Amino acid sequence: MQERHRLGEEEITRELFRPLVTTTPMMWVGFIGLGAVLAIFVFAVSWMFYWGLGVTGLQRPNMWGFMIVNFVFWIGISHAGVMISAILRLTQAEWRRPVTRAAEVMTIFSLMTAMLHPVIHTGRPWRTLYWVFPYDFWRNLWPDVRGPLVWDPSAILTYLTGSTLFLYTTMIPDMALARDRTTGWRRVLYTILALGWRGNERQWKMQTIAGFLLSGLILPVFVSVHSIVSWDFAVSLVPTWHATVFAPYFVIGAIHSGVSAVVTLMALMRWLFRFDNYIRLEHFDAIGRLLIAVGTGWLWFFLLDIFFAIYPQEARELEIMQFRLFQWPFNVLTALIFIFGYFIPVPIWIFQRFRRNVKIMFWTSILVNVGMWAERYWLIKPGLMRKYEWTFDWNWYRPSIVEVSIVLGSFALVGFLLLVFSKIFPPISVWEEKEGQHFAQQLQVGKRVVNAIVREF
Amino acid sequence: MAIREVLGLYRDLDSAIAAADALREAGFSRSEFEVLSNAPYPEGTFGEESGIHRLFVFPLIGAACGFAAGLLITGGTQLSFPLLTGGKPLLSIPPMIIIMYEGTMLGALIFTVLGVLFESRLPWIGRALYDPRITAGYIGILVRTAPEREAKAIEALQKANPEDILTENGNVGRQPARS
């Protein structure tokens, strides 16, 4: 059921531009709170750069820890943004309009945050740049393309570039609107970004086709990125990592956590910016239904991963799987993943009255992402915390306060960037909302008046 | 030959369509005027024909370029520094496919956006009559015609009850429609 209100052009513009011109007390709380956590993040990273990786819990054989877990988590979050946007555009789903912009922005900031992690994880990021750029042409040395650590940046950079272009292309008409309504530095900025947009028939036609074309192109990239991230692990010989099911499993996990993050974002936008007229209960209802399917798909792959580890009866795999399922703290983590990732949220989402309750949707989406972060840790760490053949190292991994600060700070970083974006650009696509209003109709069907949308096929 | 511009602003869709019809009745071809709006309308709303564009060519060219770049990086680097590993073939095809795939998609994405900008004639840095009220919801009909037909264009635009009419010499203002 559509609960769309008829809104005037000026009303839509004024309401959607509100975050740009007014800063509510809640937004100030957000800026100050997230800024404070971000300061801790910067301090922790600086501390680590100064003293070296010794201040983290990393040691042999635990060479990958919280930072890589967090990297995988943020790559996952970045997935659903563009996926939701692209699929809804391709299918011309009407409820896409208030969701797409914020979801695309979340994708970009999550990706940027994710990319930060492997770089700071080197401990000496300035040397990383030296190693990577430029290639050593003089000595004819090249990166080995057979290594997954080369595939990974190529996929992520493709996704980041594609997502940024996708977002920018759909923002051009709104930049023209902002250009025509602002003064000072904002006018200069929007004039540059609007590229002289005037809104003639040809420009609108190209804008419409671009939405379809870019959606069609970005979707295969979205699938490839998390597949390739999963191969960082799957092409190694580490037990429980070396699994063919990892690629689809990572992708469905990314969608589960990412779509949940979109729900979190929708609720926050509704509360912070008072976008009740745009992000309506029907949107939570629709995305809740999607999450039931996605969550159940994720559960299936989660169980498959366990099954494939046990079925071949290989001693090393069984050893790690036993460690994961029955030994502290991974046994608790297993339960937590199941309960938070599926058994609390999904039964709740089955009921429409809960799907249409913003607070319940918000907290269940948070629960899913707590579960999904734990799942990433559960996937990555136990395989490393074992005794290797021909080595004497077999240590536990205990994350240090520095790593905990970096993880918490990454959430603050994404939140802070999203808030800053909302202060400069409209977080909901204004022209798409207006387009939706143009085509909104009310039809009399029997004794009912039905809200409908005229759509061209 | 000098071209003069006239911009009529209309509050609603019906008036704008009436203005487009009036211009056609006055002998203006569809290529002599364009409709400016703040949101898309279905193609043909203002009587325009489906314009020819080559946007679909751009992603194909981009994909070909990206594929070639991917092939060059993967194949080229392996051949440039031949490092045999475990007696396996020098060119390792599966990793090459991954990088070539990403290169292909990246090329297609970049060229699509370039194509959109090219076909939309953006960035536009020329001077043309424009009014910020268009992004506020008014529909603009911009006529580009010979100086001797400017008065005729203004007359046609005024038939559809415009909110305002702008010319290069200034504001003509709202005139009562002639019967």
Can you put this structure into words, describing what you see?
The complex is a heterodimer of chains A (457) and B (179). In chain A, 71% of the residues lie in helices and 3% in strands. Chain A has one domain (9-453): Formate dehydrogenase/DMSO reductase fold (Up-down Bundle), CATH 1.20.1630.10. In chain A, α4 runs antiparallel to α5 (100-121), α4 (66-90) packs antiparallel against α9 (201-234) and α5 (100-121) packs antiparallel against α17 (401-424). Chain A is globular, with a radius of gyration of 23 Å. Chain A has 18 helices and two strands. Chain A is mainly α. Chain B is α+β, with helices and mostly antiparallel strands and 179 residues long. Chain B folds into two domains: 4-38 and 135-171, Alpha-Beta Plaits (2-Layer Sandwich), CATH 3.30.70; 57-119, no CATH class. Chain B is built from four helices and five strands. Chain B has helices at 13-25, 57-80, 93-119, 150-158, and strands spanning 4-10, 33-36, 139-145, 164-167, 170-171. The longest helix of chain B has 27 residues, at 93-119.
